[in-house]
Fold this sequence. Notes:
By secondary structure, the chain is α/β, with parallel strands linked by helices. The chain has helices spanning 2-5, 7-37, 45-62, 78-89, 101-108, 115-123, 141-149, 173-177, 192-204, 206-209, 244-250, 274-284, 297-304, 313-321, 339-344, 370-375, 389-398, 400-420; strands at residues 66-71, 93-99, 130-135, 155-159, 181-184, 262-267, 289-295, 328-333, 347-353, 378-381.
Amino acid sequence: MEFESSNWIKDGVYFYPHLFGGIMITCALLSFSTSYFGKISVPTMPYLFPDLRVFHKNKSANKRVRVYMDGCFDLMHYGHANALRQAKALGDELVVGVVSDEEIISNKGPPVLSMQERLALVSGLKWVDEVIPNAPYEITEDFMNRLFKEHKIDYIIHGDDPCLLPDGTDAYALAKKVGRYKQIKRTEGVSSTDIVGRILSCMKDAKSEKLFSEPSGEVDNLNNTRSSKSLVNGGHISHFLPTSRRIVQFSNGKGPGPNSRVVYIDGAFDLFHAGHVEILKSAKQLGDFLLVGIYADHTVSELRGINFPLMNLHERSLSVLACRYVDEVIIGAPWEVTKDMITTFNISLVVHGTIAEKNPLSIGKSDPYAVPKNMGIFQMIESPKDITTTSIARRIIANHEIYLKRNAKKEASEKKYYAEKKYVLAD
Ligand SMILES: *[C@@H]1O[C@H](CO)[C@@H](O)[C@H](O)[C@H]1NC(C)=O
Ligand SMILES: *[C@@H]1O[C@H](CO)[C@@H](O)[C@H](O)[C@H]1NC(C)=O
Ligand SMILES: *[C@@H]1O[C@H](CO)[C@@H](O)[C@H](O)[C@H]1NC(C)=O
């Protein structure tokens, strides 16, 4: 800021191109001479480079590339997160349009999550710089011009699936024509349709219907035996193939700095929702480094019944890692916080939200926070939102007829996609 308004940078702008050219020549000469004459020390270079870097940095600071991507982001999952991560990589600032409830209702039927909840989820992603609420479902020429003029967008980003307007024309034709359109690859393995399918297929099981009913406090309800189909994904075949590369792409890649205060929070983080974002934000504010323990699949099943978790451990880990308040995750954390964990990760504080998913099968188990409580490093924190995985699943069940119909149609087209898909080098 200061540099921009001072004369120094103005002079610099005119002056540096010469210097830049000069350095280029010097470099060429030096590299030639060093290779030619062998060991020649180059004392002048190091102090020239820092100046050069300042110039480059500020040149790019003047023109930050702003990219735009939109979506419904209903039942936010790591596929959405990955699309936005790729979009961000195409620019410096990512602006995300979140489609309004009304537009979703008239185009696809009722959304599971409200505008507020969807905004909270999208804003919580570490790659998102700005959000535009109530974006149109179909990108009109009018809205596109607003993006370019008002929001100073340089490029509109969209997935590689064709997006057609009702009249059959390409929705992004204008952006393409003016060279301000960029495309990203679809993230394989997950879709909102798939997640709704997992919840609905749980419901088919008469016993598990009770799982989503109002909590009765009866443990008997959940004492169902493990059926032959894999229920980690509600009997659905997951196309998700976890890779180490994806985890790395989502990670911050940094440990806690010296003297940082490490805060630990754990849970299933199933069907990552706005309530999770809020509690992670509150937890992060109590320290410098937020470590999140994500229960293993078998731990969640033991606590909540065989239909849970709805999302498997790797899927849940990616959703949590995508959150801007999270620094690190433990993939498959134990139910009990042990002394060894506290020492290993130098945990200063263990927190737990006041509103948390009921763990009906945990009755009779020992207090998972006994150790941190004894050490005086345990704290309950107020959950800002009264929302749980079960409450979201219940919304889907309440509207299951609409969702079943919608899903049947979409599942057919997704099946076709997987049958016909070919290898693509995706990022
Ligand atoms: C570049 O300019 C920005 C203002 O646009 C300023 O905040 C920043 O400190 C400058 N960076 C360097 C390295 O001079
Ligand atoms: C759960 O089921 C097992 C075997 O089906 C049975 O032996 C046990 O008593 C049941 N427990 C409860 C609490 O109903
Ligand atoms: C452990 O955490 C405390 C803060 O609670 C910090 O002062 C200390 O430096 C940390 N230890 C190491 C080795 O980083």
